[in-house]
């Protein structure tokens, strides 16, 4: 984009008070370009707006929304007081441009009624969400979703996404906006989203099954990103049940008839959405079962050995016809975790992430099954399983493409591969933790894997990582824990001033904590851990 200057032709400097809204909010020096250097550096070019005479910015519109709601609340609480000129009826039309003394409805008011936020706010919420939707299990085609969501029809119209899905997307859009005045509306939007999702399968919306499944996944991530609450697991269970009842694990199955609950997909992209939906559920269940120290939901519902759905492609691959029309698949997960070669190699970034999460789950389940004093057949079986899984994880880690070497990368692909690498290394950390205290080789390998977990985030540009998959909080905390154990062991072994090895570990951990702290607002559960890690890493 060519930069348009707003500087004064006489002085060569930006006129006083004419910084863009983003720089004003951050109290940064603005150079007056469009986008300005500050916004370009932060990769938020779309937020670079100026106050032009006769034209209102989105910031002004939102502020007017807030003022209007405050006036309306005051009016409802004091109905007998004279009304001021700014108190207008709830159905006052919203003007998109030009000066106005009236104010559009705020998110809170609009969600008390069956209507939606204003058009401008809808666009902002959807775009804020779609920029990072890959981190929260969004499996639908982004371009198609955006186009249908912005159609000029009322909510509930069959040409638009279902009300349940739209409500959850708006909820996520509020959080991802980073704007306090919008984020304060979360409780109202959350109540609305939860209610509509619980009723998502009622009615006759043509996409109610897939859209309700998507809403369940997004709500689960929403709760998991705030705290490991039962609400997150509740919505994850809903997603698991709905995916199984829709037979999403049997797409293109070689051994089973086609799914019966869903109609045949309309085209290759819709089939791709269903494939991605299945693996989004697998990732959600596997990763958070490990992260929350719980039993995975599929353990009581369906054996993963009968999963026939192929590994997901990069999304544009479906439109390009890369999924062979008549190809059939069998035992996708079983073949992978047992190291059985197949023609479906699953090399997309999304497939890599799904595989990493499955290996992490396998390592966690094997570690939980170990008991001190095991002998006989149980010990032999455990030893064989350990050796097999160790080999599978090691080969998988070696096969992963570095995030900075992806052909035609997008920010979403880069983030996905970073998370895949991190989880794969974390799987090795979990597996080797069983013997790290008694086997020196296992101890060294575990530390090396933990170092890779913490080092990879520094190898990619942080401009792609304003938000990240919430499971990374658990991954980073686990890797930091390994470093803390090593530091404490060295400190106990050598009394007195720390030696070079310990100082190096502390220095590495300190640098890692600085990188991780950039995600403090995204991963609130890390906050106290970070404070503790900083104290330990910096202590002498």
Automatic annotation (TrEMBL):
This is Zn(2)-C6 fungal-type domain-containing protein. GO terms for cellular component: nucleus. One of its GO terms (molecular function) is zinc ion binding. It holds the Pfam family Zn_clus. PANTHER family: ZN(2)-C6 FUNGAL-TYPE DOMAIN-CONTAINING PROTEIN (PTHR47338:SF29), ZN(II)2CYS6 TRANSCRIPTION FACTOR (EUROFUNG)-RELATED (PTHR47338). The keyword Transcription regulation applies. It comes from Mycena sanguinolenta. It is found in: Nucleus.
């Amino acid at each position: 984009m060519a930069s348009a200057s707003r500087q004064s032709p006489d002085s060569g400097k930006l006129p006083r008070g004419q910084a863009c809204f983003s720089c004003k909010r951050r109290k940064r020096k603005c150079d007056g370009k469009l986008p300005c250097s500050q916004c370009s550096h932060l990769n938020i070019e779309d937020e670079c707006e100026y106050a032009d005479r006769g034209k209102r910015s989105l910031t002004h519109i939102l502020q007017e929304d807030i003022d209007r709601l405050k006036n309306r609340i005051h009016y409802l609480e004091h109905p007998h007081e004279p009304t001021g000129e700014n108190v207008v009826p709830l159905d006052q039309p919203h003007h998109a441009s030009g000066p106005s003394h009236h104010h559009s409805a705020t998110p809170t008011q609009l969600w008390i009624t069956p209507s939606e936020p204003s058009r401008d706010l809808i666009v902002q919420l959807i775009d804020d969400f779609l920029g990072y939707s890959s981190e929260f299990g969004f499996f639908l085609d982004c371009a198609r979703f955006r186009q249908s969501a912005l159609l000029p029809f009322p909510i509930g119209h069959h040409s638009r996404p279902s009300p349940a899905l739209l409500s959850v997307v708006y909820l996520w859009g509020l959080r991802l906006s980073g704007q306090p005045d919008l984020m304060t509306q979360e409780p109202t939007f959350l109540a609305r989203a939860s209610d509509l999702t619980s009723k998502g399968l009622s009615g006759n919306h043509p996409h109610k099954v897939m859209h309700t499944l998507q809403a369940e996944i997004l709500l689960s991530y929403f709760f998991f990103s705030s705290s490991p609450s039962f609400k997150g697991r509740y919505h994850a269970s809903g997603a698991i049940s709905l995916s199984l009842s829709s037979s999403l694990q049997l797409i293109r199955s070689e051994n089973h008839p086609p799914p019966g609950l869903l109609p045949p997909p309309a085209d290759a992209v819709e089939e791709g959405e269903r494939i991605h939906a299945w693996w989004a559920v697998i990732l959600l269940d596997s990763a958070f079962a490990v992260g929350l120290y719980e039993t995975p939901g599929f353990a009581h519902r369906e054996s993963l050995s009968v999963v026939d759905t192929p590994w997901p492609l990069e999304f544009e691959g479906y439109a390009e016809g890369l999924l062979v029309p008549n190809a059939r698949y069998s035992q996708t997960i079983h073949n992978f975790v047992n190291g059985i070669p197949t023609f479906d190699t699953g090399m997309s970034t999304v497939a890599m992430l799904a595989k990493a999460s499955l290996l992490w789950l396998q390592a966690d389940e094997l570690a939980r099954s170990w008991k001190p004093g095991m002998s006989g057949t149980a010990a032999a079986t455990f030893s064989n399983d350990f050796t097999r899984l160790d080999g599978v994880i090691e080969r998988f880690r070696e096969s992963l493409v570095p995030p900075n070497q992806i052909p035609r990368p997008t920010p979403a692909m880069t983030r996905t591969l970073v998370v895949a690498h991190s989880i794969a290394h974390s799987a090795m950390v979990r597996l080797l933790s069983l013997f790290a205290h008694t086997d020196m080789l296992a101890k060294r390998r575990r530390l090396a894997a933990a170092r890779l977990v913490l080092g990879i985030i520094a190898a990619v540009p942080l401009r792609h990582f304003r938000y990240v998959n919430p499971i990374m909080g658990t991954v980073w905390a686990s890797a930091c824990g390994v470093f803390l154990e090593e530091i404490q062991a060295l400190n106990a072994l050598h009394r007195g001033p720390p030696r070079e090895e310990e100082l190096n570990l502390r220095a590495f951990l300190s640098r890692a904590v600085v990188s991780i702290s950039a995600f403090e607002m995204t991963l609130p559960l890390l906050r106290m851990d970070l404070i503790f890690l900083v104290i330990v890493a910096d202590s002498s």
